[in-house]
Amino acid sequence: MGSVLKNRSFRRRLLTVGSAALALPLGGCLLTDNPDPALDIPAHYRAGPRNPAVAEAALPRLDWWRSFRSRELTQIIEEAREANLDIAAAIARIVQADAQARVSGAALLPTVSLGGSGTRSRSSQSTGTGVGGASERGLYSASLSGSYEIDFWGKNRAALRSAEESAVASRFDRDVVTLTTMAAAANAYFQVLAAQDRLAVARRNITSAQRVLDLIRQRLNAGTASELDTSQQESLLATQKAAVPPLELALRQNANALALLTARPPERVTIRGGSLRSVAVPRVTPGLPSELIAQRPDIREAEAALAAASFNVENARAAMLPSITLTGEGGYQSAALRTLMRPESAFFNLAAGLTQPIFDGLRLQGQLDLAKGRQDELLQNYRKSVISGFTDVENALAAIQQNAIRERLQQEAVVASRRAFEISETRLREGTVDLVTVLQTQQTLFQAEDALAQVRLARLQAVISLFQALGGGWLPKPVEANAR
Question: Quick one: which of 195, 193, 198, 237 has its CA closest to 215?
Answer without folding.
Answer: 237
